[in-house]
Amino acid sequence: MQNQSTEIRHDWQLTEILQLFTLPFNELIFKAQTLHRHYFNPNEIQLSSLLNIKTGKCSEDCAYCSQSAHFKTALESEPLMPTEAIVAAAKQAKAKGATRFCMGAAWRSPKIKDFTQLLEVIIAIKQLELETCMTLGMLNATQAQQLKAAGLDYYNHNLDTSSDYYKNIVTTHSYQERLDTLAEVQKANIKLCCGGIIGMGESVEDRADLLRHLANLPKHPESVPINLLIPIAGTPLENSQAVDSFDLVRCIAVARILMPTSYVRLSAGRSEMADTLQALCFLAGANSIFYGDKLLTTNNAEITHDKQLLDRLGLNSTVQ
Q: Which of residues 98 and 173 earns the better pLDDT score?
């Protein structure tokens, strides 16, 4: 194991990352917290709000997702929301303390007929002095450049898991297609929000390989969401076993060590986490959360509870 360093690397080997995962817990947390303090104020948390602007009927078969047209879930599909409704939701999110407004649409890739509206939405929300983020599926170069021109700050496109395990989660597109979209986003100089999900039956090696892919991108994602699977009835992963809490913390700590300048976001699954577990995740290097009562289709921690938790921990919200 190399000595602690603040060097930003893009050449991580899988064996090195697996060594981090197997460190004694206290040593791993110390390494992560030391790097975290070098690059960030350890008492600041970035708040993002997430809105599903188009729901269901997605042609992809992601095994964790209630929005896939391949699965029979209780989710009701909804078309793309009107611009006015999206902007109103953004205003409400800002009033409640969010500094970034994230919008998700269940598509393989954006439809031509909807793209003009999406650009208008970005322009309108930027006027509210909020950061903007969208997740719209796969993009081509022209789409990425148009989103950038409209003022989009972040684009979310998660890798989900390792390249080897991906075929067990999705069959309607390839891992390389995901990587191609990441490349187009970074070429367009849009900040990248890219992470994964743990608890889908993957191994520690798969988690390490996911983080290796992210850390070895030409530029680290500015935001790295670590999602805990929420099993949803009707999806292939509805009976997945719960992840050990310390495994989640380890994953966050390793992400912090590999990508020390990135915001590491504690994402899906927070509504099921005890306050003590969330505090341990913050200690391990998580410094961003989704803020609001709902994520794309699942419940999130209540805003009032989040405020109380941040106050109890002496943590302040911040604008990136």
A: 173
CA atoms within 13 A on the CB side of 85: 9
Would you state the structure tokens that stand for residue 65, as one six-digit string? 């997702």
Our answer to whether residue 102 is catalytic in this structure is yes
> Residue 59 maps to which CATH number?
3.20.20.70
Catalytic option among 100, 133, 178, 256 = 133
Nearest to 263 by CA among 287, 229, 230, 241: 287
Residue 9 forms part of a structural domain? no
Q: Which domain holds residue 276?
A: 24-312
Is 70 among the domain residues?
Answer: yes
Of the residues 100, 178, 250, 265, only one is catalytic, namely 265
Among residues 100, 102, 194, 250, the one annotated as catalytic is 102
Active site residue 194: no
Segment 157-199, tens digit of pLDDT: 999 999 999 999 999 989 999 999 999 999 999 999 999 999 9
Which whole number is the average pLDDT over 125-140? 90
Which of 100, 178, 193, 212 is flagged as catalytic?
Answer: 193
Report pLDDT digits (tens) over 33-48: 999 999 999 999 988 8
Q: Active site includes 265?
A: yes
Residue 58 resides in a domain = yes
Work out how many domains the chain is built from and give that number. Answer: 1
User: Which amino acid is located at 143 in the chain?
Assistant: Q
